[in-house]
Write a structure and sequence with these properties.
Blueprint: H1 2-17, H2 19-23, E1 26-31, H3 35-40, E2 43-47, E3 59-60, H4 68-75, H5 81-93, H6 97-105, E4 114-119, H7 128-140, E5 144-146, H8 153-156
Parallel strand pairs: 1-4, 1-5, 2-3, 2-4
Helix pairs in contact: 4-5, 5-7
C-alpha cells in the first residue's frame, strides 16, 4: 500500500509540474572526483556509495549502495565479479529503484539537466554504478549512461584534476 501511495503522490506531482519536463531529464553515472564538473554542467549529483567523501556537495541514495557484506566478499576475493553482479542485482530487486530515481528527477529545477549517480571508481566497468545502470536499462527501460567527460570542450580543461581521491576501505 505504501508503494501505491508513493506512486499516486508522484503522479499528482508530475501533473503539477508537467510530466513531459521530467521525461527530458537524464540520469548519468560518474565518480566523485568530477562532482564539481557535473554540477557546473547542470547535473545534480547523488552518492550511491556507503560512504560519501567529506565535503562532497551531493545528495545521497544509500539504498542503491551495495551492502558492506557484499563489498567485503568481493574486495577480499571471496566471490567472483559474476557473483557480485548477481548478488547486487538481487539486492536491487528488493528495492524500489525506479521510484527512488524518479523521486530525485521530479525535484529538479527547470535549469537542471538531470542527475548523476556517483561512486569512487574512475573506471565505470570496475564499479557497481555500471551494474545499476544495466539493471535499470533492462528492468525499467531507463536509459542510464556514464557521463561523457570528452563530450564538452569546457569539461576537457578540468579532466585531469580530481576533486576527491579514491579511498581504500579496510574491509
Amino acid at each position: 500500500m505504501m508503494i501505491l501511495d508513493g506512486i499516486l503522490q508522484m503522479q499528482k506531482h508530475l501533473k503539477q509540474i508537467g510530466g513531459i519536463k521530467m521525461a527530458l531529464k537524464e540520469i548519468k553515472t560518474g565518480y566523485f572526483a568530477k562532482t564539481k564538473v557535473y554540477s557546473d554542467n547542470g547535473y545534480k549529483p547523488y552518492s550511491i556509495s556507503r560512504i560519501t567523501p567529506k565535503g562532497c556537495k551531493c545528495g545521497e541514495i544509500k539504498d542503491l549502495a551495495p551492502s558492506w557484506e557484499l563489498l567485503k566478499e568481493y574486495k577480499n576475493g571471496m566471490i567472483t565479479s559474476g557473483d557480485y553482479t548477481s548478488k547486487y542485482w538481487q539486492m536491487l530487486s528488493s528495492k524500489d529503484v525506479e521510484i527512488l530515481l524518479k523521486e530525485k528527477l521530479i525535484t529538479l529545477t527547470p535549469e537542471e539537466k538531470g542527475i548523476v549517480l556517483l561512486c569512487y571508481e574512475k573506471n565505470p566497468e570496475d564499479c557497481h554504478r555500471s551494474i545499476l545502470a544495466s539493471y535499470c536499462n533492462q528492468k525499467f527501460n531507463m536509459k542510464i549512461e556514464e557521463y561523457d567527460l570528452q563530450k564538452d570542450k569546457e569539461i576537457n580543461k578540468d579532466e585531469d584534476k580530481d576533486e576527491y581521491e579514491q579511498i581504500e576501505l579496510d574491509l
